[in-house]
Structure formats: structure tokens, C-alpha cells
Amino acid sequence: MGHRATDLGQMIGDLLEKSYVSDSRSSVRENCEAVIAALVKGYGAFDDEIAYSIVIHAGTHMINWCARHPRAGVRGKVDELMQGAVAIIVKAWEEDREWFDRHILGCLFRRCV
User: Fold this and answer.
1) What CA–CA distance (Å, rounded) separates 82 from 68?
2) How far apart are CA 1 and CA 78, in angstroms?
3) Which of 10, 20, 33, 43 could form a disulfide with 81, with the two C-beta atoms 3.0–4.6 Å apart?
């Protein structure tokens, strides 16, 4: 209903949060990554500018997660989540396409027209 960058960014941010704070089972992370790829595919092609905007929204959403859902059980994962979120935002701001080619969010750029 909203702008593609905020809609996808929020959904992707939620999925990345889940993959970071899950109980270290690789299946959870793989499932989150599969859903991210499917969401991107379903939205269709977009240009690099939108892809970077989506990534920035996703990273920002990840950072805000701690304020929305503080739980003692995930505190050990917070550092990993924050480092991942900051890296995503910085690399998007720098438009580092090569970095994203090695990241799950690279699917955003492979869908670009």
C-alpha cells in the first residue's frame, strides 16, 4: 500500500531480525532468506536507486527492533544484529553493489532492470 522501498524494507527487516535472533538453527536463517528472495521476486523489477532505498529501510528497521522488543533472551544476539544492520546501511549508502552480491540482499540487485 505504501512506497515499495518502505513496504519491502520493513518486511525484509523483520525477516532479517528473525534470522539473527533465532536459535542459531541454520534452517531458520535459510527459510528467512528464501522468503526474502520470494518477496523480491514477487514485487518485480526495480532500479538500483529503489534497491538501495529498500536496503536502507531494512537496516533501519533492524536497528529499531531492539527498542520495540527488548527481551533478555536475545541480548546476546543484539550486537550481531546491530553490526549487520549498520553494515547494510553503510554499504547501501556507499552503493557498494559488489558487497551486496555476496549478501542475501543481493537478490534485490539481481532483480534490477
Assistant:
1) 14
2) 30
3) 20
Q: How far apart are CA 16 and CA 109, in angstroms?
A: 17
pTM: 0.82
Mean pLDDT within 28-48? 83
Alpha-carbon gap, residue 92 to 23, rounded angstroms: 28
* Rounded CA separation 23/112 (Å): 33
Cα(38)–Cα(99) distance, integer angstroms: 21
Cα separation of 12 and 17, whole Å? 8
Measured CA to CA, the distance from residue 38 to residue 41 in angstroms comes to 5
